[in-house]
Design brief:
By secondary structure, the chain is an all-beta fold. The chain is 0% helix and 28% strand. Strand 9 and strand 10 form a beta hairpin. The relative contact order is 0.14.
Length: 128
Amino acid sequence: MTIQGDIDSENRNVIVENKNGKLGQTWDIVYADEMPPTPKKGEMFAAFGMKVDTPFHVISNLPDGRFLDLIGNNMVIKTRNGLKSQEWTFNYNTRTIRSARTPSYSWDIQNSGRTPNMQVYSTNSGWF
């Protein structure tokens, strides 16, 4: 069994293929009674090092300590202003960082990663 094209994306097909030694052919078996519980709001999701559904700010280490903010859907740095556009949460189900201003939007690299520009965009979890 292998993941088609060795591409780690949601709903990717699993196929039969000759052994190729790539990661897409490696699997773990975890018995149901040993499966860790889904973290609840405020609990740490260790694999990502983030608390689930708990608001946070991202603050630059540059001298003025500006906050990650939004102008439209584009990410920028701005002085702290207390607006929801400077607040973020980690969503366990989609494994995305979402905007508190627009919770259906999460961090995204513009143009499907073909540019270096960061933005928020409709959450589709297509990257993991």
